[in-house]
Amino acid sequence: MCENAYLTEPLKLISIRKETEIDFTFKVEYNKPLLPGQFLELSIPGVGEAPISVSDFGDGYLDLTIRKVGRVTEQIFEMRPGDVIYARGPYGNGFDCKLYENKDLIVVAGGTGLAPVKNLIKRFVSNKGLLKSFTLIIGFKSPEDILFADEIKQWETSANVCLTVDRATGDWNGRTGLVTKYIEELEIGDPASAEAIVVGPPMMMKFAVLGLMKKNLPKQNIWVSFERKMACGIGKCGHCKIDDTYICLDGPVFNYTKAEMLLD
Fold first, then answer.
1. What is the largest CA-CA distance in the chain?
2. Beta carbons of 240 and 229 less than 8 angstroms apart
3. How far apart, in whole angstroms, are the C-alpha atoms of residue 34 and residue 162?
4. Is 70 exposed, middle or buried (0-12, 13-18, 19+ CB in 10 A)?
5. What residues pair up with 163 in beta bridges, in sequence order?
6. CA nearest to 113, candidates 203, 201, 179, 32
7. Residue 36's pLDDT is what?
8. What would the pLDDT profile of 150-172 be if each residue is shown by its tens digit?
9. Residue 57: what are its φ and ψ, rounded to 5°?
10. Beta-bridge partners for 160
């Protein structure tokens, strides 16, 4: 008897944390194996479902950092600890962290693109000896849009962190400018052996990758995530199909040698 691929399971909501005015992190009970960069399909009966990247996970829990942008997410924002969220998954290939071990690793993340790589960052920050060096270039539109502010401060103790905003507001006295500005300033000992991960809005990823290649990183050493393309998660709706590639099945993580051919 075939299993129904659309069946969901109930996940009990443990806690809710405010990140920005429109971004909240929902911690739920969870015990399945996961990889950084994978996603779940969240379902609200009678409302619909939405693909959401897993921002963190550990023993008995996972975090979903969600932006309030539509019917499903609006309903989720009405929930309280103890309520049940329905989900199916996990889906996607995720990041293979072992590929980056003993390398110089650069992660460039823009906006909500930081969420799908947060667990990967935590893994390498907590295990310094796994990498030769670790550089994070993280960009947001404004100081009010910064996600995981407390965690970023912790990462600064174990990684080279460049946090920037497109425009300064309030009493912000940190870096300003696009992430590409700081890619230009990168000093990479041996670009041929370094690895890079780029996640964020499409235009940001395009120019970040070009910037890394100008620093002599081979395209086969660059990895991107097309996480914005998700829909059904199982290759049935066709929403994420580019040519013969289903992003939800073959990705959302791609080596750039493949990604550069996926013209949307």
1. 61
2. yes
3. 28
4. exposed
5. 138
6. 201
7. 96
8. 999 999 999 999 999 999 998 99
9. -160, 160
10. 135
Contact partners, residue 203, CB within 8 Å, separation at least 6: none
Phi, psi for residue 214 in degrees, rounded to 5: -65, -25
- Is it true that the peptide bond before 218 is cis, omega within 30 degrees of 0? no
**In the numeric block, which tokens belong to residue 64?**
């979903």
Question: Confidence class of residue 34 from pLDDT cuts 50, 70 and 90?
Answer: very high
- Given this model, what pLDDT does residue 228 score? 65
Give the DSSP per-residue string, 50-93. Answer: EEEEEEEEETTEEEEEEE--SHHHHHHTT--TT-EEEEEEEES-
d(CA 109, CA 106) in angstroms, rounded, equals 10
Radius of gyration of the chain (CA): 18
Mean pLDDT of the chain: 93
Q: Looking at residue 229, what is its pLDDT?
A: 65
**Phi/psi of residue 207, each to 5°?**
-80, -25
At 171, list the tokens.
Answer: 């009493």
- Checking if the pLDDT of 243 tops 90, the result is no
d(CA 236, CA 251): 15
Q: What is the pLDDT of residues 170-223, one digit of tens each?
A: 899 999 999 999 999 999 989 999 999 999 999 999 999 999 999 999 999 999
Q: Which amino acid type is present at position 110?
A: G
Query: How many other CB atoms sit within 10 Å of the CB of residue 10?
Result: 11
